[in-house]
From TrEMBL:
Any single GO CC term annotated in Swiss-Prot or TrEMBL for this entry: extracellular region
MF terms in GO: lysozyme activity
Gene Ontology process terms (BP): carbohydrate catabolic process; cell wall macromolecule catabolic process; defense response to bacterium; killing of cells of another organism; peptidoglycan catabolic process
Species in which this protein is naturally found: Streptomyces gilvosporeus
Protein name as annotated: Lysozyme
Reactions catalysed: Hydrolysis of (1->4)-beta-linkages between N-acetylmuramic acid and N-acetyl-D-glucosamine residues in a peptidoglycan and between N-acetyl-D-glucosamine residues in chitodextrins
Cellular localization per UniProt: Secreted
Keyword check for Disulfide bond: yes
Amino acid sequence: MPLRRSGPARRSRHFLAGTFVSLFTVLVLPLTLPGAAGASDAGKRPAHPEQDWMGSTIAAHEGGDRAGGGEPTGGSEQRGGRPTVSGVDVSSHNGKIGWPGLRDAGMKFAYVKATEGTNYRNPYFRQQYKGAFEARLIHGAYHFALPDHSSGAVQARFFATHGGAWSHDGRTLPGALDLEYNPYGSTCYGKSHPEMTDWIADFARTYRAKTGRDVVIYTSTNWWKRCTGNSARFGTSNPLWIPHYGGSLGALPAGWKFHSIWQHTSSGPGIGDRNRFNGSFSRLMVLANGG
């Protein structure tokens, strides 16, 4: 019977193998990890997500009266002969919300920031989102897009999993995709017009597959022109939420014949930004119910 070798020669082979593995780990893996991280968004955490709320970069880049347009006196009012419905959008920088007070001030719907990029979740989301529902507001969630961090599909799945899902309960609005100036660098996140429209389409397609609803697109006309080349690709499928601070709405991005929501202030009055739904409360309910 052959004898097993357990002496110095056997230990030397183990030592050499271990040394090789250690050297491989030290010398090779650090060279490959950064590329992998870039592909998966690992380690790409937003520096100040609590400062990135819906419209936080619009006034800074486009100007306008942040409190323009006045404050509706009730949940529904007439503007230009058409009914409008008042709403509010909030994020973590608003902290805990006194929703009954906002309801009594006339707010009928609310959007709450849920996520940003692929790894930030609003720490106040549960209180804000559930609180709006319990105060009998029609509620929805929104995602602050960072198109240079990952694919649109990855961010859509993250959003839908962490607050952006839709329920057919008559009280939940489809999720919204917040597209605005990059708070961390290049205005258009380093993307060409075709790359940006493809990113948005990737998000929209994935969100619809996950929830059964077309995502609402929040964007300004100026940003849309600059970063998508004024694409008309989404106007027939995705409701438009447009920010414009002042007494008039202004021009719409290409492809949309009308807007669904107008963010007419970015500084209250009171808590959150103020919005008007373009229609009656019954039409808002149609949007919540899948229309």
